[in-house]
Fold this sequence. Notes:
- The chain is of the alpha/beta class.
- The chain has one domain (3-98): Rhodanese-like domain (Oxidized Rhodanese, domain 1, 3-Layer(aba) Sandwich).
- It contains 5 helices and 5 strands; from the N terminus they run βαβαβαβαβα.
- The protein has helices spanning 7-16, 28-33, 47-50, 68-80, 91-98, and strands spanning 3-5, 21-24, 40-41, 60-63, 85-88.
- The protein has a 5-stranded parallel sheet with strand order 1-5-4-2-3.
- This is Probable adenylyltransferase/sulfurtransferase MoeZ.
- InterPro entries: GlpE_sulfurtransferase (IPR050229), Rhodanese-like_dom (IPR001763), Rhodanese-like_dom_sf (IPR036873).
- One of its GO terms (molecular function) is nucleotidyltransferase activity.
- Residues 16-104 form the Rhodanese domain.
Amino acid sequence: MITQLSVNQLADFIHENPQTILLDVREDSEVEICQLSGSLHIPMNLIPLHHNDLPDDVPIVVYCHHGIRSLNVARYLAHLGFDDVYNLSGGIDAYAIEVDGEMARY
């Protein structure tokens, strides 16, 4: 079971866990539109090739556009043995709606 973080919980979570990795699994064209500051971008299809680049001793919050792809990636990472993985519920679109009204949406 992957823990879901709401976009409103994200700031507090990062404040309490400052080494958290925000893992953006969207496509390059999506990242060009908007992104969360400080994110690490690895498109979903490249995660199997680059999961070894991720530290396994810090929390990882995975996000995408609406939270579906990121949930699948979070489950995959948990299956590989990452034990501190979270999904950003609603993805960056929910973040733009609920947290940052200035953020571009698509």
